[in-house]
Known about the structure:
Elements: E1 7-10, E2 13-16, H1 20-24, H2 34-47, H3 59-66, H4 70-82, E3 86-89, E4 93-96, H5 112-136, H6 139-154, H7 162-176, H8 180-188, H9 190-208, H10 212-227, H11 230-253, H12 257-260
Helix pairs in contact: 2-4, 3-4, 5-7, 5-10, 5-11, 6-7, 6-10, 7-8, 7-9, 9-11, 10-11
Amino acid sequence: xxxxxxxxxxxxxxxxxxxxxxxxxxxxxxxxxxxxxxxxxxxxxxxxxxxxxxxxxxxxxxxxxxxxxxxxxxxxxxxxxxxxxxxxxxxxxxxxxxxxxxxxxxxxxxxxxxxxxxxxxxxxxxxxxxxxxxxxxxxxxxxxxxxxxxxxxxxxxxxxxxxxxxxxxxxxxxxxxxxxxxxxxxxxxxxxxxxxxxxxxxxxxxxxxxxxxxxxxxxxxxxxxxxxxxxxxxxxxxxxxxxxxxxxxxxxxxxxxxxxxx
Length: 262
């Protein structure tokens, strides 16, 4: 087993040694928005500065280190829990998630058959999650969904940044549905969902110049969830997925035979 990381002191925080570089690189200016803290920590996880299994500081220490309220620190961690980047362990604290999507170990699918099966899974899972979220989402869940839509709007014509924001939305949607097993299912599909979203993003931007239509649909979806309208939410997501998957399958129709093969 891997030995526990050595605790070190960095400024007002006492954290694990893998946090030393992360906190040394954080901005010296006061961070007031939980989303900014979550974005920074998410970036550090993606870059490998924070490794799976690393323990995060407690809420009070995190709040002190970033110069924000305790509530803001809690909300930042809640955002990261919602998108699967960190996890809580009863009585022990919050850690960078160790889950590795099971399908990712086998590589990203490239055949049309693989993509068609992924599309089926996304539709069955996604439409149920949308309806469940409309029935169960809290005000906090809706706020997280709107934050993801705001990120999508900021990357509406950026094929490299949009997929991450879109993926954040669907993880937040799964969390809003209020079923931890379905949330785990979405997390397990994360690598493949990213590939599907990246393909659709590239095709949509190439065709229309931006994905404003997608942002508008996601906004309408959040509105339906907030109003508690499951059938409307399901219909909006169904229409969006149909368009999304038309783009993806269109790419495969044009691909060489060695890529499209089953």
